[in-house]
Design brief:
The chain is mainly alpha-helical. The protein has 2 domains: 52 residues, Beta-Lactamase (2-Layer Sandwich), CATH 3.30.450; 101 residues, no CATH class. The protein is built from 6 helices and 3 strands, in the order αβββααααα. The protein has a 3-stranded antiparallel beta sheet, with no helix packed on it. The mean pLDDT is 78.
Length: 154
């Protein structure tokens, strides 16, 4: 994963797309470009994504659910969980940054919720793209939550 991220950073990429049956893709100036890697298998994709998680996160992700037996359904559960948790973490992290800024500036009006955090993203150069990524990620989290409700071990 480090080599792929380094290649993305070296090329000035704003995004990195990891999908099975495709080489890693990067977005440079709004255009998707493949990196010089072979197409990733499902196992490659899982390995790369899991490399970003702690052992506890991986264990919790896999043990809390009785995953479906069909490989395609299982993959949807895993990918929606991976993407969804990253988007949820990004959203909560943005709120945390706003709370810290409010505390430093002694202005409680600047400590606000998710709506203000997302609104603050629109003020950045990549704002609309970040909002789309967060929205897609939170939608993936919603899909994962549905699967979690259906397959969660009680």
């Amino acid at each position: 994963m480090e080599k792929i991220i380094k290649a993305a950073v070296d090329r000035g990429a704003s995004d990195l797309h990891i999908t099975q049956e495709s080489p890693p893709l990067i977005r440079v100036h709004g255009e998707l470009r493949p990196l010089a890697y072979p197409p990733l298998t499902a196992n490659d994709t899982r390995t790369l994504c899991y490399s970003l998680l702690t052992e506890a996160q991986k264990k919790k992700f896999e043990e809390d659910m009785q995953l479906p037996l069909q490989p395609q359904a299982r993959q949807i559960v895993e990918r929606s969980g991976q993407v969804g948790f990253i988007a949820k973490g990004f959203s909560v992290g943005t709120i945390g940054i706003l709370v810290v800024i409010a505390a430093i500036q002694f202005d409680p009006n600047k400590a606000s919720g998710l709506d203000a955090a997302l609104r603050s993203l629109t003020q950045t150069p990549l704002g609309p793209w970040l909002l789309v990524l967060v929205a897609l990620g939170l939608a993936a989290y919603g899909v994962f939550c549905w699967f979690d409700a259906k397959y969660h071990r009680v």
